[in-house]
Every structure is written in C-alpha cells, then in structure tokens.
Amino acid sequence: MTAAPERACQASGGVRPTGVERRLGAEELIVTKTDLQGRITYANDTFLRISALVEEETLGRPHNIIRHPQMPRGLYSCLWSTIAAGEEMFAYVKNLATDGAHYWVLAHVTPSITPDGKPCGYHSNRRSPSRSALPVVEQLYARMLRAERGLPANEAARAGVQVLEEALAEAGTTYSGWIWSLEEEGAS
C-alpha cells in the first residue's frame, strides 16, 4: 500500500495525528539509511507501507518527515549527539505516518562508516517494541514534553534532555539500560 504523493508532501508538518495506531508484526523490520544530514537514501518496503509513503516521494527527504508531535525534542537531541559521536543508540520512538496514523518502534540507529573509517551516513533498524513498556515510555516522554512546551527549539531540547537525565539518575541507569530493562520486563 502506498500513499498518494500529496500525502508524502504533507508529512513535513501538515499531517494531523488521527489516533489510529498501526503495529509492526513480530517478525517485521523497518530499515532506512540516511546521509549525514538525515536525508533518506534508502527505505525498505515495510517503512514505506507503515509510514504511508511512496519511495519516489521519500528518497532525499529528511527522516523527520515521520516525526510525531508527541515526541520530545530532547530525545532527538540525545540521539543525534550519540550517533554523531560514532556510537549506536536504541530508542523508543513514536512516528507519524503521512495519513495521520502513528506507530511505535524500538529503533537501533548506528553510524555508517566508509572503509577508511569516516562516517558517511546513518543506518536504522526498527522493530516492534514491548507493548508493556509503552505506558512507562509515554509517561517519561510526557514529562519531557511538558518541560519543552513553549520554549524555542534549542532551549526545548535542552529542557527535555535535563528531564531525561534527571529521570535516569533517579533510576540509577542509562537510557540504554532503561530501554533494555523495559524490554526484558515485557519479555517475561
């Protein structure tokens, strides 16, 4: 299933969430690749289908065309600083398809490296997250969003990061440790 081209063009800001949720199948994987600026250079069929996109309208577009308004800027700030430093990151992400549906993923984002060791882009695999983790994740993300509300973008990101760091310090863990503890709880 592909979206009409006008839907793909709306994705950068004109799409309103409908409240309809899509779910990845247990065996499905979303795969995308981007350049260093976050422009999509590859998208698999699962990504296109679940995001209601067509390949011709997707390649070359910024990956944030699927950014859901209920995702805190602070999380993306952490993500970008982590991968820009050459490290991998796992993150729970709520995305917005171009038809207004949303879907949750557990994303694994890594830098792509040339044979001579230089970063040339990013690679992300996403799978279905533990359903039992989502209420906990949504609660933390809502706290981050409240701290970010009404602030300019850079200040909002810093405020969200601060809430995230405080929550993780309270829990005595890192973001990765928190992610995996939630995934393990959901598996048991």
UniProtKB/TrEMBL annotation:
Which Pfam families does the record cross-reference, listed alphabetically? PAS
The PAS domain covers which part of the protein? 35-61
Q: Which GO terms describe its biological process?
A: regulation of DNA-templated transcription
Recorded protein name is PAS domain-containing protein
- Native organism is Actinotalea soli
